[in-house]
From TrEMBL:
Presence of keyword Transferase: no
Lineage: Eukaryota, Metazoa, Chordata, Craniata, Vertebrata
PANTHER family the record matches: COPINE, COPINE-5
Protein name, UniProt field: Copine Vb
InterPro entries to which the protein is assigned, alphabetical: C2_dom, C2_domain_sf, C2B_Copine, Copine, Copine_C, VWF_A, vWFA_dom_sf
Length: 502
């Protein structure tokens, strides 16, 4: 916000808000015969990205934004390619992939300040789309200098070692991620030491020290199909602690891509027994479904690429029906879960906030005490949007809903314990949750050593549902909602019930 002291008495202008524009493209026209296009664009100028039709440009644009002015923008996307003949460079050509016009107001005024428009300029051709996102810049002027090294990275190349590089992303309000830095490639090593780099703090987290920062590690390939090695999440607050045990991270594949057909996957469909996800679902669901009159349950997945276009979703129906995500009973949910594993590609990041907010929208519409919503989340413990999830839970605590989280696998579940809020009530932006609505249990604590899964599931359900009645009553009491009067005693058909007055 501008203060009274920012006013310029000579021009009469108040300095504008500064916004940062991020540029991405999807499904660009493939103009190169033997390789993918190498797009750049000339608004300023981005870096050239080799061999991709779906570039995410690291370079950002900082613009002054005036609400009251029309600010026209034009984006041109050339592609550069080199022609070689008999090992001699003949010449360099610049071809054209298309252009797009918009105003800065269109970007800022779009939902979540994210505008997607088609590229035009080549008659009769679909040239792909441009995605522009805007974020108001904080007034943080700090810079951070960092250096990273890695030990014993996964070997990706059949011959030789890997050629690793790192990609840094900052998280956005809507749970998505924006690329903000790429390191150089260190050739032929599993123990790289990358060069120190300096980056503005607002590029990393826009001045919010607790905002999630995601870091992915890749093995560089000449053809642009870089192999994913693994990822981890952190925050600027953690990074600012410097070189210490706080800044040693396990580079894990689990949050990015998981193959349910492999026996090591937590989603593995063993023909002889339920996997941990299905067992947790069945254990809790078979008890809680008795309190639902029609036994129809919406079942949603999060963290997967969906057919046909491979977009990543954190809020997709397991049964594949966007219009009607309801499944018939727990058996219907299990069937939809197994079918979805065959059609979607499990993929990171793992964002919780969209699912919590999805249920919260339903709960917000029915606050008269006639309905109460229970969200069951089954997770491997990886969470990419901790700050957004805390915010979602604090908001949901005012609504008729509870959240059950069952952690599967052998991961550390520190983040889930924090969300549970038993020891320290969860808060977001200094605001405490009105009541405790989250119950977390790790599935591994309930596995019976004798292999008696029926007993395991019964114990899990008992503990995970133990807090629901109190959470339900605490909502009703806080809203002054009293139970309905007891119905009259049941009278079998053909009988009259006599009251005897004493």
């Amino acid at each position: 916000m501008s203060s009274v002291y920012d006013f310029d008495p000579i021009t009469g202008n108040i300095p504008a808000t500064k916004v940062e524009i991020t540029v991405s493209c999807r499904n660009l026209l493939d103009k190169d015969t033997f390789s993918k296009s190498d797009p750049s664009e000339s608004f300023g100028r981005t870096e050239v990205i080799d061999n991709t039709l779906n570039p995410d440009f690291v370079r950002k644009y900082i613009l002054d934004y005036f609400f009251e002015e029309k600010q026209n923008l034009r984006f041109d996307f050339p592609t550069y390619f080199l022609l070689f003949f008999q090992h001699f460079l003949l010449h360099c050509l610049q071809d054209f992939l298309g252009q797009m016009f918009c105003t800065l107001g269109e970007i800022v005024g779009s939902p979540a300040s994210r505008l997607e428009k088609p590229l035009g300029g080549i008659p009769g051709k679909k040239c792909g789309n441009v995605i522009l996102t805007a974020e108001e810049l904080s007034n943080c002027r700090d810079s951070a200098t960092m250096q990273f090294c890695a030990n014993k990275l996964d070997k990706k190349d059949f011959f030789g070692k890997s050629d690793p590089f790192m990609v840094f992303y900052r998280s956005n309000e809507d749970g998505t991620f924006t690329i903000c830095h790429k390191t150089e490639v260190v050739k032929n090593t599993l123990n790289p030491v990358w060069q120190p780099f300096t980056i503005p703090v607002r590029a990393l987290c826009n001045g919010d020290y607790d905002r999630t920062i995601k870091v992915e590690v890749y093995d560089w390939d000449r053809d642009g199909s870089h192999d994913f090695i693994g990822d981890f999440t952190t925050s600027y607050r953690e990074l600012a602690r410097g070189q210490s045990q706080f800044n040693v991270y396990e580079v894990s594949r689990s949050s990015h891509s998981r193959n349910p057909s492999q026996s090591t996957s937590l989603h593995y469909m063993n023909p002889y027994q339920l996997n941990a996800y299905a067992m947790a679902l069945k254990a809790v669901g078979e008890i809680i479904q008795d309190y639902d009159s029609d036994k129809m349950f919406p079942a949603l997945g999060f963290g997967a690429k969906l057919p046909p276009d491979g977009r990543v979703s954190h809020e997709f129906p397991l049964n594949g029906n966007m219009e009607n995500p309801y499944c018939n009973g727990i058996e219907g949910i299990l069937e939809a879960y197994h079918q979805s594993l065959k059609t979607v590609q499990l993929y990171g990041p793992t964002n919780f906030a969209p699912i919590v907010n999805h249920v919260a929208r339903y709960a917000a519409a029915v606050q008269d005490g006639s309905q109460y919503f229970v969200l069951l989340i089954i997770t491997d413990g990886v969470i990419s949007d901790m700050a957004q999830t805390k915010e979602a839970i604090v908001n949901a605590a005012k609504l008729p809903m509870s959240i059950i989280i069952v952690g599967v696998g052998q991961a550390e579940f520190d983040a889930m314990v924090e969300l549970d809020g038993d020891d320290i009530r969860i808060s977001s932006r200094g605001k405490l949750a009105e009541r405790d609505i989250v119950q977390f249990v790790p599935f591994r604590d309930y596995m019976d050593r004798t292999g008696n899964h029926v007993l395991s599931m019964a114990r899990l359900a008992k503990d995970v549902l133990a807090e629901i009645p109190d959470q339900f009553i605490s909502y009703m009491k806080s809203r002054g909602i009293k139970p309905n009067p007891a119905p009259p005693p049941y009278t079998p058909p053909g009988h009259t019930h006599h009251h005897t007055q004493i």
